[in-house]
Amino acid sequence: MQSDYDAIVIGAGVGGANAAAELATAGWRCLVIEAGAYHSRQDYPRGELDGNTRLFWHGGMELNRSASIAMLRARVVGGGSIVNQALLDEFDDVALDDWRERTGFAWLDQAGMAPWYARARGALQIQTVPLVHANRNAQLFKQGFEQCGYQCAPLQRGQSGCRHEEGNDCIECLYGCRLDSKQSTPLTSLQAALKAGAKLLTQCEVERVSEAPGRVTVQARLADGRPQTFRAGQMVLAAGTLGSNTVLLRSGYAAQLPRLGQGYYCHPQFMYFAQYREPVLAHKGPFQAYKSDDAGFRRQGFKLENVFSPPIGTALLLPGMGAAHQADMAAMRHYACIEVAVRDSHPGRLSLGQGGRLQIDKELDAEDQRRAAAGYQAVQRIFEATGAERVLPGRFGIGLHLMGGLGFARRPEEGCVGEDYRLFGSRRIQVADASLFPSAPGINPSLTIMALARRLGRQMAEAA
Ligand SMILES: Cc1cc2nc3c(=O)[nH]c(=O)nc-3n(C[C@H](O)[C@H](O)[C@H](O)COP(=O)(O)OP(=O)(O)OC[C@H]3O[C@@H](n4cnc5c(N)ncnc54)[C@H](O)[C@@H]3O)c2cc1C
Fold first, then answer.
1. 124 near 271, Cβ under 8 Å?
2. CATH class of segment(s) 129-172+267-399
3. pLDDT tens, 127-143?
4. Which residues of the chain does CATH 3.30.560.10 include?
5. Apex CA 37: angle with CA 35 and CA 41, to 5°?
6. According to CATH, where is 3.50.50.60 located in the chain?
7. Residues forming a β-bridge with 414
8. Is the pLDDT of residue 327 over 50?
9. Ligand 1 geometric centre to CA of 243 (Å)
10. How many other C-beta atoms lie within 10 A of the C-beta of residue 81?
11. Strand, helix or coil for residue 77
12. How far is the CA of 280 from the centre of ligand 1 (A)?
């Protein structure tokens, strides 16, 4: 493993696996280094507690400095694709126009992205969540939208057959899909990369990277504490937004990149539970089936999704303490749930605090609070229209779409990565994950991360 490679890809998540697939199939000798362990359908953790500790960084969540938003990021081969809801959407003109305006990159439009979306889609199966199996939580969502005059649409998901007709409940696939239906990267792009000869080193955390004429050097540590050093001609940094920013901050890149860690977004999400007289059984059947598809919501900077959370997550989110909290948990089978996801306009900042630990400064400013409040108002109307007895707001925000910190830009005063995906001032380090995002799109990011990573991989292979 210590020998030379054409490229080292850091992180076997959504972006890293897609970049590695392009490079390896073009004949590059690739090493993919991943901090997490490899799991398969045979040994995904059963149960939420085990899942949080084995599949996520820091036991499940990392808080912003005011402890008002909990960020979740996976630490496992496959990254977010193992634990996410696999909802796959292309960006609309609103998101791409904003990116093009900020960066000046002419290809950031529907036509420029179309071949890369097609390439990303080509490596996966995508299905509309079958509405015939939509559970009562989803039905209430749709009914509420119709009664309030809002538009909603069925969800597109990376899945190949969730066997709902056999009574499968897919809430558990948040901790890895034991049916191998969810199109996670170990079943798709990463598998293609490994078949083409890429090597995968698991449970190895990259600590520092550096660049010298002719090569990059990666210093890492195995789970048993042994240090490792690797060299390659090129490096693709794809450790996810928090991971890639941490590696570069620890490696001293702040001097070269004045904007390092700035421009951090997370689509803050707020979950609202509503209690109904009849059982809702939101944990049964397909986890989600509908999303908002409402031009008015898009203009106001939020979207709604029909969603739920497993018991530990719900217990953390529900307000109240002691006996009152226990009584609320006992009513869980009667809860529906809707999530407001804010398209955050106010960026946060990632930096290193005491002992080199990542520090996340991320708050909602007045505008983002207005967006969240507008979303809550819509949720209240939907719950009211469908006969909810009471609404219980989740008591903190959640960040699942972690983006930015190494944003695409024209020049170093505006971001960290140029049009060729290279860090400004670097010849050999390129970025292929969500940290490239120059702003929050307000749309599920995975498909676009895949498309951007495919584009980078192809360009590197062609340039060589
Ligand atoms: C619960 C949940 C639900 C979600 N649902 C959706 C959804 O439905 N649709 C959608 O589009 N998005 C969803 N997301 C977000 C989506 O999963 C992420 O945006 C996406 O995975 C980010 O891709 P990435 O390549 O940037 O990073 P990741 O996929 O997170 O991959 C980064 C990888 O790098 C590894 N790594 C980090 N640091 C190091 C290091 N120092 N050394 C070695 N390896 C390292 C990590 O362990 C990880 O495996 C969800 C996320 C969560 C947590």
1. no
2. alpha beta
3. 988 888 999 999 999 99
4. 129-172+267-399
5. 145
6. 1-38+76-124+183-266+402-464
7. none
8. yes
9. 9
10. 30
11. coil
12. 31
- Both structure tokens of 22: 């392009």
84 contacts: CB under 8 Å, gap ≥ 6: 74, 174, 400, 446
Query: Is any atom of ligand 1 closer than 6 Å to the C-beta of 60?
Result: no
Nearest ligand 1 atom to alpha carbon 78: 49
Query: Of how many residues is the chain composed?
Result: 464
Region 412-416: mean pLDDT is 97
Distance of alpha carbon 18 from alpha carbon 460, whole angstroms: 13
Q: 125 C-alpha vs ligand 1 centroid, how far in Å?
A: 19
Q: What is the distance between the alpha carbons of residues 396 and 5, in angstroms, rounded to a whole number?
A: 44
Which residues, in sequence order, are bridge partners of residue 54? none
At the topology level of CATH, where does 1-38+76-124+183-266+402-464 sit? FAD/NAD(P)-binding domain (3.50.50)
Residue 434 near ligand 1, beta carbon < 6 Å: yes
Distance CA 431, CA 460 (A): 12
238-289 tens-digit pLDDT: 999 999 999 999 999 999 999 999 999 999 999 999 999 999 999 999 989 9
Q: How far is the CA of 179 from the centre of ligand 1 (A)?
A: 21
What ligand 1 atom has the least distance to the C-alpha of 57? Answer: 47
The token pair that represents 175 in the structure block: 């901790």
Give the E-state strand segments of 287-407 in sequence order: 290-292, 302-306, 335-342, 348-352, 358-361, 390-393, 397-399, 403-405
| Spatial separation of the C-alpha atoms in residues 347 and 401, rounded to whole Å | 13
Per residue in 407-420, is it b (16+ CB within 10 Å) or e — as a string?
A: bbbeebebbbbbee
**Nearest CA, atom 23, ligand 1:** 14
Written as six digits, the tokens of 184 are 């996670």
From the CB of 48, is ligand 1 less than 6 Å away?
Answer: no
